[in-house]
Fold each of these.
Amino acid sequence: MRKYLVSFDQGTTSSRTIVFDSFGRPVSSGQVEFKQIYPKPGWVEHDPRDIWESQTQSCQMAFRAGGIEWRDVAAVAIANQRETVLVWDKYTGKPVYNAIVWQCRRTAEQCLQLKSTYEKLVYSKTGLNIDAYFSASKIQWILDNVPFVRSKAEKGEVLFGTVDSYLIWRLTGGKVHATDYTNASRTMLFNIHTLEWDEQLCKLFTVPKQMLPAVFPSGAEYGMTTKESIGAEVPICAAVGDQQGALFGQLCVKEGDVKNTYGTGCFLLMNTGKKAILSKNGLITTLSASLSRPDYVLEGSVFIAGAAVQWLRDGIGLIETASESEALAQSVPDTAGVTFVPAFVGLGAPHWDSECRGMLYGITRGTTRAHIVRATLESIALQAFDVVHAMEQDLRSEINNLCVDGGASANNFLMQFQADILGVPVIRPKVMETTALGGAFLAGLYCGLYRDIESLQRETERRTIFKPQLDDVRRAEKLLAWENALSRDMYRPKS
């Protein structure tokens, strides 16, 4: 009996492979980092060969570590960094240019010019703000700046894909050109209401529709891998954008379920069911992972989360290791009036202030490094509170709990403070690799290795729950101090 699921977790700085068993438990893993390319200030690229090679190498590492054989694998799943753009020759498979990464800002000026005229149109169809973050303007840049590519695209001779599409194409020996709803919904070319590539948006960004992949639910048949690609013929049964993969990995499949991933930044996603909520509070609308028609999701991004702890360590040397921050924060009863706003690159959702910068407010002679460390950890939870509050305003209802994952969620002080400041339980799963787990869940449900979502919920019941302990008065005081610091940081004196 085939009893394993192989989940490819292709990220921005590394590629990982995690093998899960038939109970959703990780068996083995491998990880390979790859080079980041910065041709100009604000430009970020990846060599597509590095993406492919690091992913296949990480798979080999995972198989060796777990003694896994392909004959024991039921299906492959792919979870990937979203919005990153690849364009390759349909016949040779050779990329026409490096992958343009989601972080790349080379098309920011172009997007700014489109905003005044087309912002409402694009948002109404895609749930996204016009921004260089998303894929469409990156595709257009390649078409306009790489010789002969536009003419080939118009003839159907080159293909576009996000990273999942590129991996699927390589894994199937060029037989399948496809993506899923979650990745398509991040391109600014996909209508999230009709679930189709939008003719009007393709014309706006001058992207020929014939270069776009077919779109399916996240759990679906994406073809068979070839012996030439990874050594065996195995069905690919899932493809999903990383944050929606984490949402599914947390089994947030009901309306109102919310998860937050604490990485370099924070990604908060709320399942809103069959209602596409067009936010009035600075959030975007996207699609969920699914095995049929997807639900809608509200999403808010915090730019700086774990990166603030890295700054404490590498930037100003207040700590030697990230894990040290937890004990230091707990060594003092409060921040002694210190508030930290980690706006190193401005503030993300729901404030969207690109001009403000990081600020430590309330420092006195009595301030110690423990107070600053505690204020830094608290700032991560306070930023998450702002996004959750915006979600609650959009939905006109309050959340019941928050599911968490990502590296910084291992910090017990941070998770307890998050529960305190939200006033709801924070739930941390036993298996914290929820992006890869979400891909495995989707593939396992599609291929029949898992019976249903209810059985998965029973298998994942072992969780850590942080319950609110802060009284309403102290909670209100903390939120008021945060709002005061934000107002000072975002203040613009009139000239």
Amino acid sequence: MDKIRNRQVLLPDGSFIPKLGQGTWKMGEDDAKAQREIDGLRYGIRLGLNLLDSAEMYGDGKAENIAGEAIRGMDRDGLYLVSKVYPQNANRTHIYSSLQRSLKLLGADYLDLYLLHWRGSCDLSEMVWCMEDLRAKGLIRRWGVSNFDVQDMEDLRSVPDGRNCCVNQVLYNLASRGIEYDLMPMQREFGIPFMAYSPVGRAGDLVTQDGVDKNGVQTDPNVLEVARRKGISVIQLLLAFAMRPADMICIPKAVSTAHIDENASVYGIDLTDSDLEQLERSFPAPTARIPMEKY
């Protein structure tokens, strides 16, 4: 497999989005950690990780505020800002105030990408109408969805302008490969790329507070052997695996400079067919439909 040379992903509207960015989930929830989180995002941006992903749900806006503090004084044109709206707010009554609050917390006058966080009981026709109206007003550049499965995507494409969806943000990592069976082929047919959240697995999911590796990824012999053979960390290996599809954007969360350095250096990692075959022994691709996994 070729090295991950292309650092951007083509979107359906003809624009490009960075292939690797920074997630902000759980940021802002502890005031004692706020400055470290701000500094971490700034450090990542200096390394070229200029895509920041957040959501109005994350800490009730506290993560957006952390991101806003991190980018204060920076050139807006050099950033790619993504946020997400609650399904209950994705309507004519609430979406405009939701977006304005997100923009205020981020200190921005527009979003590069605005996502419906999950489907819930959202009226897709109204949601799409609102997204298109926000785009026409210049408040967002493009829109997409998150946690949408096959039927959700089919329903979305059946409503007026639903085919303007640019991205579907989903859970995807070595231990969560369900989308490869049916959702990935479907979206590729329509040219809609993915954005992977928790691309190396959520810390609380991979390893418990007691240090127990719940799904065995970080202590799996095949994972450890491939990482050792390549001279990289397990985190780098997991991120390189998630990033290997050309249409996959990844938004790992990191705070420490060491972890951010690991993420930023993943572009130089080449996963060979032999590497992938060894990883498959422990974490095989799905052979049947798996209901969408999500956090």
Amino acid sequence: MRRKVNRTNQILELITGEGKIEVAELARRLDVSQVTIRKDLDNLEERGIIRREHGWAVLHNGDDLSARLAYHYQEKELIARRGAELVQDGESVMIENGSCCALLAETLTRTHRDLTILTNSAFIASYIRDREHVQIVLLGGIYQPEAQVMVGPMVRQCAENFWVDRFFIGVDGWSERTGFTNRDQLRAQAVRDMAGQAEQVIVLTESEKFGIRGTVPLNLKNQIKMVITDDRLDPGTAQILCDQGIEINTVD
């Protein structure tokens, strides 16, 4: 299904395609004033998705989670909104590191009240630090600066003090043989440790991840109850997941 692309997504497509682009060139390509483009860029910069640099709009370093927010932003935002619909005011939820997860946390702070968000992501904790109506619990551990995430045995020790209905995670890949995967052993173990304190695990991911074979299986067995993804998920893959008792929730 072809989606209507709004101006924010058009801007992000241009920036991610080129790495950096002049503000004047953005205005010309999108046929709007530079004043309008600057307002759009101000909003994106405030949300940590891009940065401004002497008349240019610049994508963050590709290894930074801020940069990953910009890729397939429209799909990720829709996925995050659908995930937020599952959460009630006053609820405690656990959220793992990742771009869809970061947008979920940001969405929850705009649409819900009196939430407690438990996360091992220093990026997410910082991303929503100024939002009202939310208590942030950052699980301790060894800090991985490139992913801005906490890992190691302290994550499990901290998580064991809590119990939640829903734990939202991102993934780096999936195959029929291995299931969902991560590319880092320590981050994968942190997900397993956190998943032990949740009634159900919900995967937030773009459908293209199902074509990637990751290195480290998450081995969550029957804990994953739902996958929220876009409507480009291969029907054969969807059937495999359904046969495993996983609900498929697609956005379009």
